[in-house]
Specification:
By secondary structure, this protein is mainly α. The chain contains 14 helices and two strands; from the N terminus they run αββααααααααααααα.
């Protein structure tokens, strides 16, 4: 009759230990969960509800259901911001996604002063984004006193309109964002490059593979998991561009050529006093990001079925 008592005692001891571990774990996580809910989930749900209502300022007057969405889709500024969102995305993938990979490759091939170069390319990431936007505003100043225009004048070229040019403004904003964030991303790629086994490259050299063949057949396939994750983060980040066009083009630029959806939501709320339209705009942006994420996961699932390690 002693065995069941021992087993029951051991079970109760394990149960109490598990409860104590759970309590200690939850006590550590609970403050973070509360703060996350307060600053993320509650505003998100409030904005979702507000997008289906009519507001005066930020006070809800009543439900109008889909009238706000009809109104913003009939707004010329919204259609321009919607279009610009995908222009930002295209330039970001062309500039902001490729450059960190190149920097990571260059760092992985560097022999001397590697630590100095790492610190150098990471430094812009430690500067506040607003500060960098102001700095590049002076750099791309279209007046004759702008830094780049002074350089062009010294070289004997005519000055450019830079941020006032509708065709240049979004690529220049993406360059600004890339200058700030590329270094930190490049270090992530560098870590992925350093985990690739050197015997792969040695075997490739023996087989006569050149540099480009080694990059495309060994390097890039080996870092495909990192590439896929950072690709998604790049898309989500550029979809939420806000203070760069606000600061660099004074809220959208000529012909609203740099207007983003998040910036338009800000203008709806704090310039026009239409929190309902602002919430509807952010909800549409959320749906765009969600849709692109689902497309990405579908592609990843398809690649995994074909045997790729993504």
């Amino acid at each position: 009759m002693q065995k069941p008592i021992v087993k029951t005692h051991d079970y109760l001891q394990k149960r109490r230990g598990l409860i104590r571990r759970n309590i200690s774990g939850w006590s550590v996580m609970l403050p973070g969960i509360i703060l996350f809910a307060f600053f993320v989930w509650i505003p998100l749900l409030s904005a979702l509800v507000m997008s289906f209502t009519e507001t005066i300022g930020f006070e809800i007057q009543g439900f109008v259901w889909f009238d706000n969405f009809v109104e913003i889709f009939n707004d010329v500024d919204f259609r321009k911001a919607f279009q610009n969102t995908f222009v930002y995305l295209g330039w970001s993938l062309l500039i902001g996604f490729i450059i960190p990979i190149i920097l990571g490759l260059l760092l992985s091939e560097t022999i001397h002063f590697k630590g100095l170069f790492r610190i150098g390319i990471y430094m812009p990431s430690a500067i506040a984004g607003l500060t960098i936007a102001i700095l590049f505003s002076f750099l791309f100043d279209p007046s004759s006193t702008g830094f780049l225009n002074n350089v062009l004048k010294w070289l004997g070229f005519a000055p450019l309109s830079w941020l006032e040019d509708p065709d240049l403004v979004i690529p220049l904003i993406v360059v600004t964002m890339t200058w700030r964030g590329a270094g930190a991303t490049a270090l992530i790629y560098l870590s992925a490059f350093q985990q690739i086994k050197t015997n792969y490259y040695e075997a490739a050299r023996i087989d006569g593979a050149n540099t480009w063949q080694r990059i495309f057949n060994i390097t890039l396939p080996s870092i495909l998991p990192s590439l896929s994750v950072l690709f998604v983060l790049q898309v989500i980040s550029v979809m939420q561009v806000f203070f760069e066009p606000l600061v660099m083009t004074n809220g959208g630029g000529a012909d609203r050529s740099s207007l983003s959806m998040l910036l338009l939501a800000y203008q709806y709320a704090f310039q026009d006093g239409r929190a309902d339209l602002s919430s509807a705009t952010t909800f549409v942006l959320f749906l765009i990001i969600l849709g692109l994420s689902l497309v990405y996961f579908a592609l990843v699932a398809a690649l995994k079925k074909r045997g790729y390690k993504v």
